[in-house]
Amino acid sequence: MTKLVLPFLFLIMLSAGLSAQTWTDAEFRSANTAANVPYLSNEEKNIVMYMNLIRIDGEKFYYTFLEDYINNYNAKVKKYRNYHQLKIARNNTYYVSLLKHLQAVKNLPLYYPDEKLTLLSKNHAQDLNKNNIDTHESSDGTKFAKRLARYFPNKNMSENIDFGYSNSIDIVCHLLLDCGVPSLGHRLNILDQKNKFNTVGVGIQRHPTYTWCAVIDFVSQPIYYTNNQR
Questions:
Q1: What is the pTM of this model?
Q2: Is 194 helix (H, G, I), strand (E, B) or coil?
Q3: Which long-range contacts (CB under 8 A, 24 or more apart) does 174-183 make?
Q4: Whose CA, among 47, 87, 156, 214, lies 20 to 30 Å from 147?
Q5: What span, in angstroms and rounded, lies between the C-alpha atoms of 6 and 8?
């Protein structure tokens, strides 16, 4: 896994005649709520950071990191015969709908990591790997809500699982686009306002079928609790 190197001013030039968009060092520092925790890998920390950048300025994320992700993805799949079916076209309905969602996202409350929740995320990712499964249920049949409620009773909670990527930006953008998922459940978890999610656990593990899997758990905690995580 690679470590993200953050410049003091991150500048991305946009295509299609759009003006330059910038991410400041202050925005990166604000978003990087997992920077100093010892229980997350660099890529796991960056998952939290990228989700927070989306919540700081959704439209800017769309025209910078997401734009880069799509360009890189389309370049990778160009070698396949069914490239036109695999590529993410600019008229893709999920791509189009995402802009509408992200235009309304500005300065939302940030996500903060939690060690106990992260342990649950990592344990489930390890279970997916060990038993070669791809479900929110544990290999013993335990539902994800029951699995989390043992340690976070009576809390709003949800879970995202991504397969195929180990790189943080790929994981976040893949879940944010949510192509092929009509409910847009993964996207809505990242952009959540309704459930007041503010606490996250993250685990990236190998997977026999999909090479990699990533589990992200979301929980709503009292404000004083999240403030103590800073």
A1: 0.89
A2: coil
A3: 175/216, 176/54, 176/66, 176/98, 177/66, 177/88, 177/94, 177/95, 177/98, 178/94, 179/88, 179/92, 179/94, 180/94
A4: 47
A5: 7
